[in-house]
Design a protein that fits this description.
single chain; 295 residues; D-Maltodextrin-Binding Protein, domain 2; Alpha-Beta Plaits; five-stranded mixed sheet; 9 helices; 27% helix; binds 1-O-pyrophosphono-5-O-phosphono-alpha-D-ribofuranose; binds zinc ion
Length: 295
């Protein structure tokens, strides 16, 4: 019986853990953790949760130890690049959290104006595959020096001249006298799965999980927007409210030239166009959260 539970690997602690647990929670899945804290069980669906180091997640999924995983695209891409054959795991969807960039960074005193600055240099990184790819694409001959951790101290220790490391706030680079000079890879959390087909039971669980994740992701950034506007401006205003089905236009009591517009809209898109909406005569604008939205 138990082997028919879908096993999902998530990061034990670090950049992705909180977002991964939050995602499962938003999906209505409560994880009760085992005593060893390496294992959790979901009650709402037949899912077991394994808590691992993020770097181990792609190979655990590939090797059948887990069926699916939540991992940074950076870690997954690096793992793929370091394999000769096709990876036994594949990305299913991006999850929209744990965004970060893999960046080349150099000592602050460098004046960096072009990739050629890196010619002949040693670049400390935990991502030699992605680093090499970037160097090749930019026609630069430099040598990645593999380091598992504390990459940012390499220039100070004279182990390397520059680094290629994950940056989210930039605080780590700054504290080590380094500045970002080029983006090598943009990353966020992704759901990965083993390519090989699942048993019918696992497949059903996987699909149920996907459906919930899709529901959470589509509603995450969505807002219910309401405003009053001149009837004549409806078409122009609707242009600024994309990402949703046709908006609802409602009559306003006692006003023939004004209507209420209700629409579901991505919040970021909405804020980008607030000024235009006002210029078109929109007033009494309300932005409401959406708890859940099923496509
Ligand atoms: C990265 C990187 C830095 C830090 C940068 O490590 O190696 O230590 O994050 O973040 P900041 O720009 O906000 O200062 P990561 O979290 O990927 O840890 P891991 O390599 O141990 O998985
Ligand atoms: Zn890691």
């Amino acid at each position: 019986m138990s082997e028919e539970r879908l096993r999902i690997a998530i990061q034990k602690s670090g950049r992705l853990s909180e977002g991964s647990f939050d995602l499962l929670k938003s999906c209505g899945l409560k994880v009760s953790r085992g005593k060893d804290k390496l294992y959790g069980r979901v009650h709402e669906l037949p899912i077991d949760v394994l808590l691992l180091r993020d770097d181990d997640i792609p190979s655990f999924v590939a090797d059948d130890a887990c069926d699916v995983g939540i991992v940074g695209q950076n870690v997954f891409e690096e793992d793929r690049l370091n394999l000769e054959q096709e990876h036994a795991a594949e990305a299913v969807m991006a999850l929209g959290f744990a965004r970060c960039k893999l960046m080349l960074a150099a000592p602050k005193e460098w004046t960096f104006d072009s990739p050629e600055m890196l010619e002949g240099k040693r670049i400390a990184t935990s991502y030699p595959g992605l680093t090499r790819l970037w160097l090749k694409e930019h026609g630069v001959k430099a040598r990645p020096v593999m380091m598992k951790g504390s990459v940012e101290v390499a220039p100070r220790l004279k182990i390397a001249d520059a680094v290629c490391d994950i940056v989210s706030t930039g605080a780590t680079l700054d504290a080590n006298g380094l500045k970002p000079v080029a983006t090598v890879f943009e990353s966020q959390a992704a759901l990965i799965r083993r390519r090989a087909p699942f048993s019918a039971e696992k497949q059903a669980t996987f699909e149920a999980l996907l459906k919930r994740i899709n529901g959470v992701i589509t509603s995450r950034d969505a807002k219910y927007v309401m405003m009053n506007a001149p009837r004549s401006a409806v078409a122009a205003i609707t242009e600024y409210l994309p990402g949703a089905d046709a908006p609802t236009i409602l009559e306003l009591a006692g006003a023939s030239d004004k209507v209420a517009i209700h629409a579901v809209c991505r919040e970021s898109v909405f804020w980008d166009h607030l000024e235009e909406l006002k210029n078109l005569g929109a007033s009494a604008i309300l932005v409401l959260p959406i708890e859940k939205m099923m496509p």
